[in-house]
Amino acid sequence: MSPLLLFSLVIGYFVLLLVVAWFTGRHSNNDSFFIGNRSSNWMLVAFGMIGTSLSGVTFVSVPGAVGTESFAYFQIAIGYIIGYLAIAYILLPLYYRLNVTSIYNYLQQRLGFVSYKTGASFFVLSRTLGATARLYLVVNILQGAILERLGVPFWVTTIIILLMILLYTFEGGVKTIVWTDTLQTTCMLAGLVICTVYILNQLGLGLGSGITAMGERGYTNIFFTDPDSKLFFVKQILAGAFITITMTGMDQEMMQKNISVRTLRDSRKNMITFAGILTVVLLLFLFLGGLLHLFASAQGITATGDKLFPTVALEHMPPVISIVFIIALISALFPSADGAITALTSSFCIDLLGIKRRSDWDERKQKRVRQTVHLTFAFVFLLCVMVFRWINSSSMIGVILKVAAYTYGPLLGLFTFGLVTRRSVRDRLVPIVCIAAPVLCFILDSFQKQWLGGFQIGSELLILNGLLVFAGLLALSKPASVPLVMTAEGEKR
Q1: What is the pLDDT of residue 434?
Q2: 3-class secondary structure for 321-358?
Q3: What is the per-residue pLDDT for 452?
Q4: Confidence at residue 487, expressed as pLDDT on a 0 to 100 scale
Q5: Residue-wise over 288-322: b if at least 16 C-beta within 10 A, else e?
Q6: Pair 255, 38: CB distance under 8 Å
Q7: Dihedrals φ, ψ of 424, to 5°?
Q8: Which of 32, 204, 330, 361 is least buried, going by the fewest C-beta atoms within 10 A?
Q9: 67 within domain boundaries
């Protein structure tokens, strides 16, 4: 297919996003950018969050991993449901009661100013690495499918994509993203369904016969019962629950959309609805993965892992399906990158620069600082994508989960300590604990074969990291002299 045609489709899709951004971003202010003026529709937020949660990594890596791990990923999805329920009934009530703009304000009110800064810093680190890993995967596919054939270097492609994202998020922020994510999720899911139906027809299979054919190849295995395996169902379900609690419930990007909903009741409905839709969508991705492997076997296609779906879609499907794939792919790209840059800008401005605490900064000054930070993060994204280009991992979903285990663990430990204990910590020593725990986890992960024999540590490394932080905080804590009770304004009494 002509790369010029594909490139024109990308540009046309981007123009559509700009139109949506123009309508939603008019008359925006800092509150619009940070929390959407707390007026977002919960149904739009729930649906749009699907695109943010899945991203291009899920679109490509989850189907590609079916060949080696069958449907094991659904074990993690079961854990996701547990995690979303915990967020809906534990964390969301807390955030609404405290009326926070940044969820890390809770750490300041409960543990102290240094703990607050530490939590926000780990979010900035984790979201930057995770979002750029997702961005790299999709940019790499677009580069191979379109821009490389036009003679455009990879770094120029990355700059073009980032400029596109900047153009439609620069003014409206969250207020705009709620609407653009809805559009992009619709396109992504439409592409998923169309590709699935096409491959079923090509293989001459129906839904039931497709599952039977996958089962004969061993692709439909969900539960793995070997305790030593990293795919052991208990490990995977627990890991899924805690990944969700940290990467959604303790993540400013995901929570700023939830707390942009007017009421707690609607925000909770958003979270539960989102969990249900996401579970169905992940099952469909796994089903598509099984079909892709059946199709590849029948056609003699040797591509595996992250390369399987793009190879089949762009080289072994008719042009109209290839177009659908490209549109779905860029629809998966933008929600994971635009929301991340917006959330990182919000957290850096509010948590690390203290933009809301500076009484000498008027609205115009705050906006100028916010826009400067927004541009800076776009440049940081460019650098990180080039680093991932150099690393060139075969499965980016594994890289993302590993990054999450190291960088979200301290957030898990900090929030858990604040929620389940009534003790106060030595605030100035909290950064030491939060740095030491990931270092210990890295050492254990590096030498687990020598120390643990056949037992494999997988995604549950996140839980271990959080436990180490919790234990360190407990060792450095003392009983609170006065019981801590949070008022509606977030003050301690």
Answers
A1: 94
A2: HHHHHHHHHHHHHHHHHHHHHHHHHHHHHHHHCCHHHC
A3: 73
A4: 40
A5: bbbbbbbbbeeeebebbbbbbbbbbbbebbeeebb
A6: no
A7: -105, 150
A8: 204
A9: yes
d(CA 251, CA 267): 15
Rounded distance, CA 51 to CA 330, Å? 11
The tens digit of pLDDT for each residue in 393-440 reads: 655 666 777 888 888 899 999 999 999 898 999 999 999 999 999 999
The answer to whether position 432 is within a domain reads no
Relative to beta strand 423-425, strand 477-479 is antiparallel
Pair of tokens at residue 353: 């620069």
Q: Residues near 29 by Cβ (< 8 Å), separated by ≥ 6?
A: 363, 367
Q: What is the pTM of this model?
A: 0.76
In which residue ranges of the chain is pLDDT below 70?
1-2, 21-49, 51-57, 168-178, 333-336, 392-398, 453-456, 458-459, 481-493
368 domain-assigned:
yes
DSSP reduced 3-state for 137 = helix
Give the C-alpha separation, 339 to 168, whole Å. 11
Integer Cα distance of 440 and 449 in angstroms: 15
Distance between CA atoms of 444 and 62, rounded to whole angstroms?
27
| H or E, element range at 250 | none
pLDDT score recorded for residue 38: 52
Please give the distance of CA 325 from its chain centroid, rounded to a whole number. 21
Which ranges of 248-395 does DSSP label H, i.e. alpha helix? 252-258, 264-299, 308-315, 319-347, 363-391
Number of domains in the chain: 1
Q: Residue 435's pLDDT is what?
A: 95
Two structure tokens written together for 78 = 């079961």
**Which pLDDT value is given to residue 410?**
93
Whether 439 maps to a domain, the answer reads: no
Rounded Cα gap, residues 15 and 420, in angstroms: 48
Domain range for 338: 3-408
Rounded to an integer, what distance in angstroms lies between the CA atom of residue 385 and that of residue 34?
25
Candidates 421, 480, 404; CA nearest to 122 is 404
CATH number reported for the structural domain that contains residue 270 in this entry = 1.20.1730.10
Burial class (CB in 10 A: 0-12, 13-18, 19+), 383: exposed
> Which residue, chain included where needed, has tokens 């080696």?
68
DSSP-derived 3-state class of residue 245: helix
